[in-house]
Amino acid sequence: MKVRDVPRLVEYMVRIDKDPGSDWGASVPDLPGCVATGKTVEAALRRTERAISLHLDGLRADGRRPPEPIRRSVTPRQSAGRVSFYATVRVAA
């Protein structure tokens, strides 16, 4: 394998939410419309990795360059019964 054949890895920030009585939801702020759900946080993050990969493949197929992840600081919101936090997912770019 040539050096240029090795995919570059990038990290996208993922917002994780859970309302009472719902599954975990994940969204990627840098990729509007890229979302996933899961019964556990781990399942939601695994599905998000796949969703990001599919989203990036779709952008490339449309002749568009995938956006670079934006580094930012965030403050999770808190409300009664709702869980919200951020994580990162590493994918091949």
Describe this structure in words.
- The model has no long low-confidence stretch (mean pLDDT 84).
- A four-stranded antiparallel beta sheet has the order 3-2-1-4, with helices on one face.
- The protein has 93 residues and is an alpha+beta fold.
- Helices cover 23% and strands 30% of the residues.
Order of helices and strands: EEEHE
Strand content: 25-35%
Task: Give the helix tally.
Answer: 1
**In whole angstroms, how far apart are the ends?**
17 Å
Q: Describe the main β-sheet briefly.
A: 4 strands, antiparallel
- What is the 3D form? elongated
How many beta-strand runs?
Answer: 4
- The percent range for helix content is 10-25%
Q: What ranges have pLDDT less than 50 throughout 5 or more consecutive residues?
A: none
Write down the overall mean pLDDT: 84
Q: Largest beta sheet: what is the strand line-up?
A: 3-2-1-4
Radius of gyration from the alpha-carbon trace, in angstroms? 15 Å
Determine the structural class based on helices, strands and strand pairing: alpha+beta
What are the salient characteristics of this protein?
alpha+beta; four-stranded antiparallel β-sheet; 4 strands; 23% helix
SSE diagram, text form:
Layout (H helix, E strand, L loop, with lengths): L8 E10 L5 E4 L7 E4 L2 H21 L21 E10 L1
Antiparallel strand pairs: 1-2, 1-4, 2-3
